[in-house]
Amino acid sequence: MTTALSAAAALREQAARLDADDPLAPVRERFLLPPDVVYLDGNSLGPLPAAVPAALDDVVRRQWGTGLIGSWNAAGWWQAPLRVGDAIGTLIGAAPGQTVAGDSTSVQLFTALDAAAALRPDRPLLVTDPGHFPTDRYLADAVARRRGLQVRHVPPLDLPHFLATEGPRVAVVSYSPVDFRTGELYDMRALTRAAHDAGALALWDLCHAAGALPLEVDALGVDLAVGCGYKFLSGGPGAPAFLYVAQRHHAALETPLPGWTGHADPFALARDYTPAPGIARARIGTPPILSLLALEAALTAFDGVDLHQVRAKSLSLTGFLLRCADALLAPLGFTSVTPSDPGRRGSQVTLRHPHAHGLAVALAGRGVVADMRAPDLLRFGVNALFTSHGDLLTAVSRLHDLTVEAAYDPAPLTGGPVT
Which residues carry this modification: N6-(pyridoxal phosphate)lysine (predicted)? Predict the structure, then answer.
């Protein structure tokens, strides 16, 4: 106990010093965080940005309530998918005119996978990560069935070896830069280059990366990318997703869902489909204006923010959390599955414990919101825009205490379908 107390005291001093020197500390005020809650689940759902309630009130009461259908023109609703897409583009390193927002991540991912396969019609293999988020794997299988392709499940670290023999047969390589379970960060530059050296396209799922670290999709030569709006972008539950397609592919881009809003002249209501120029051809249906404009307002939290500073603070936060866990939790049977090497860490730390579910439930009862992934992973997402080092020490200290006290149910009843 004495050792734990002395370690906690030293960590408190470190946290106070690091937070005092944090240039991003004022950005926390751009979020409406509940009092007395440490929120470490922003890698699943970002908290409410302060700009969103007023923006939604205006959309509902003035633009919709008073402007009615005229707001498609007067309020710029029709242009919103491209306007919000460009705003996201600035966060992922994309020049204007290459990113569109709207529809769900699953729809955007299906569009990207199918369009990528169409750009390499003579290649029969679609490569994806066996540890990818389930939707990515399900949709890879769906596109393969639709196009008569074969899926190969290749871990990112094994890609160069796989391409050495199968490269000429690979149409597209679909990965995420961050492992959603462990927080491990993969080398986007090296993997994109490996795909290109084999003549394949590189498609990236940026859900756990957009807004958390500089991505530079243009500079890296990424071909296509998708991402959600509700994690680090804090666009709200079910916020629209985005699709990026490098400009060099626009002329040949064929999307599997040619909706009317992606037509070159949508209001001509022509019998046959003619794709709009550029990324606008990736629009599908009528834009979800309420959620799209909530996302647009949420993105203002990044105004004036340097993503390199975000990355530096994120690494400081995750490094500090790992030190806290090593000092206070490792003696209690917790182990980290997140790489200690800063260059291989995303913006989360994952700890393994056999009672992860029960501990996550008990933590929430003590004002710390994290999450778990079955069967034994506790995930702590950090967002440099609002998370402090003090928050992390509070979380680890409370987890230490409830573990020592055995103040949790190892097999709790589920509070609902979402874990």
Answer: 231
